[in-house]
Structures are given as C-alpha cells and as structure tokens.
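I hope you will forgive my troubling you with a question about protein structure. Could you please explain, in whatever detail you think fit, how the structure tokens follow from the sequence? Thank you for your consideration; the sequence and its tokens are set out here.
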Amino acid sequence: MRNFDFAPLYRSTVGFDQIANLMDRVATNDVAQNSYPPYNIEKFDDDSYRISIAVAGFSEADLSVEVREKSLIVSARKADDTTDKTYLHRGIATRAFERRFHLADHVQVTGAAHVDGMLNIDLERQVPEALKPRQIQISGTSRSIEKDVVDAKSVN
C-alpha cells in the first residue's frame, strides 16, 4: 500500500481543507475494508440518491441512522438473545456494525424506511437559491453613475 504525505498540500492552500481531508481519508482506508453489511448507492436524478443497506435479521429498534458533521452514520446492535437456541447452521449474520458515508455540501437526508430486510435512506441535494446560477437581464441602454460629484453650493 502506498502512503501519501499531504502536509505540503495543507501548507500551500487555503480553504481547501475539505478536499485535503477527503483525500487523506481515502488514502488511509485499508484495502481489506469490512464489507458487512452489503449496500447499494443509487442515483435517481441530478439531486436525488438512495442508499440501500441489507439488514436482514435486524428490527427497526435495532437500527440507528444519524447525521453528524456532514457524515451519515448507520449502525445496528442486536439485542442479546436470551433463548437457548441450537443452530445446525448459522448463516444470517446479525453482528453489530457501523457504516459511515461522507455527505457532500447541501446533501440532506429526507427519509429512511425499513422494508423487507432492506434499510433505504433517501438523500437529496438542496442547493440554496443564493448559490444557484441565475440569469442577468441585459438592457439596451446604459445609465451613467456619477461618483464623487459634489454640488458647488454645498461646499461654499
């Protein structure tokens, strides 16, 4: 695995902390990252997304979805089973997990649903009106703006 030093990037840029942090986070992730539970990320249109996580064996009470510091954190903890069960084969993993997704600017979680063993989390990019592009009307006449013109009568 390659190790990259982003210190020169931090020293020579101002205001790009998020990009440097993102690159640092991606570079430090281990290649053999835990793949449990499996998930999909779908894009419906330019501003709508859905994260679907396979959570078979978990109830809604076992699941937690939280947004904290531009991160979506999905976690699950199965309540201890006090019944004495004897398994001949145990293939359904119900171990605790925590999965994090970094959210871009203006991406909001609009809802979550637990249906048929899938946790579906809907996301939408909601760009404020002030940041959206707008058309400027061009007029045919120009108006002159007089700056620093002082009336002679008010000076004397």
Observations:
- Residues 108 and 143 are 44 Å apart (CA to CA).
- The longest helix spans residues 17-28.
